[in-house]
Amino acid sequence: MTDFAGKTYDIAIIGGGPVGLFAAFYAGMRGASTIIADSLEELGGELMAIYPEKYIYDIAGFPSVLAKDYVGPAVEQALSMGAEVTLRTEVTGLERDEQNELIRLETTKGEIVARTVIICAGIGAFEPKRLDVDGIERFEGGKGVHYFAKHVEDFRGKRVFIVGGGDSAVDWAVTLGPIAESVTLIHRSKFRAHEHTVQQLLHGPADVFYPGYVATGIQGEERLEGVTFVNTDTGEEQTVEVDEMICAIGFKADLGPLKTWGLETERNQIVVDKITMETNIPGVFGAGDIVTYPAKFRLIATGVAEAVTAVNHAVTRYNPDARLDPGHSTNIMEKKAREAEKEAQLAAADDD
Description:
The chain is an alpha/beta fold and 352 residues long. The chain folds into 2 domains: 8-125 and 252-321, FAD/NAD(P)-binding domain, CATH 3.50.50.60; 130-249, FAD/NAD(P)-binding domain (3-Layer(bba) Sandwich). 25% of the residues lie in helices and 28% in strands. The two termini are 36 Å apart. 39% of the residues are buried.
């Protein structure tokens, strides 16, 4: 566990998801001392907390990749540059120390002091939206109804019913199609998932009912046994026998303590300058799903690009003599290697 008492970091990163991890890596490339603070038990953010075994498709260089298989190398990459990490650590307060040009973060494990901060907190604190069906709560907690479906093997050979039309719902239907006994998906309106994945769903083995379909009833004694759903346009009702039900109808996001820090927000996101990724608080930057600006796209790919922008501007804020654009990564790493070699030579000379 990182002991951050008495230390001053160049950059403190709030959030250990894919964007925060890349921010830590790139900050290390820029020679910044860095710490990642995350409230979860492991790095990876939502990818590990919600769907580690779900395929994701918007990562450059990967036609598709399991979330956990992406997170593993991302963690290795971040830590390779010396980033420190403190987990199970909620950041509860932020105060700018004008006199010393520092930012003090109050956390559940003490104070983190940094010259700059980058907020990469995803959608903030989140909880799933509950499906409004009488009696559904009886089957939560391992009895057939899932709001967080984490392990693919839990559904092998099962009759699976999925509610939702976003990326999570469609991805799960595509992923489970080849291994489940059956997959039924219903959605009340147009799909919000990536077009390519939707086409995979519609041409795959799942039984798909959309638009205008909603769940109206649920059956079972000790465990889930069936779901009733209806076409809201025609009134036609159907009941299917199921073993497992995945409710992927979205999350209720909450900025939590961030709302009290004086940050400008808009619809539960932090407003940043689209050029610098800086918030209205000097020295505090943001990247990823937590931020908003005109023409914002909520993708991992754009989030890591925002992290690069935030890091570069953070470096020039605490070190005005630093270059904003350090050049290509190869040049940066070669320079770091030369500096390390020079330090080793000086150390050897001192020993002599």
